[in-house]
Amino acid sequence: MKKEWIATHELIGVGGLPKTRQGLNRRAREEGWQKRRREGARGKAVEYAWHSLPDMVKKTLSLRTTPAEHQLSPQEASATWNEIHRQLSDAERDFIVSFIVREGVLNLLKRLDYSEEPVNDIRPE
Are 8 and 24 in contact (CB under 8 A)? Predict the structure, then answer.
């Protein structure tokens, strides 16, 4: 179920938004996002209405899921990776393996994180 109100801390840096609370609140004010005080929160904590957020932010948030929603069994995960491996060319396989060995899996995942600005294509030419 989609949330109708999104807390400020959930929006920081998402879909090209500012990476500070102050920057985010300024952008929201400039663009006229609908807001309300967060229930049960101390201070001036606010949350913003889903429908008033920019389209790119809504798209990025929609792509995020909790791990439990897409939990694969070890057999399913293995079968998925085997299929991905099978569909790659030899050059792509070599490139991916050398990248992971050199940079690590976390750097590979950072390059695939769509909430940040796009990075240069890492595929071999």
Answer: yes
pLDDT above 90 coverage of the chain, percent: 37
**Under a CB-based contact definition with an 8 Å cutoff, are residues 14 and 28 in contact?**
no
Pairwise CA distance, residues 106 & 69, whole Å:
21
* Cβ–Cβ under 8 Å, residues 15 and 54: yes
Burial group, residue 48, by CB count within 10 angstroms (0-12, 13-18, 19+): buried
Sorted by where each starts, the structural domains of the chain and their CATH numbers stand as 5-64 (1.10.10.10), 70-112 (no CATH)
- The backbone torsions φ and ψ at residue 30, rounded to the nearest 5 degrees and listed phi first, read -65, -35
Burial label, 24 (beta-carbon count in 10 A; 0-12, 13-18, 19+): buried
* Percent of the chain scoring above 70 in pLDDT: 83
pLDDT digit string, tens, across residues 30-74:
999 999 998 877 778 899 999 999 999 998 888 775 555 667 788
Instruction: Read off the tokens for 13.
Output: 């840096």
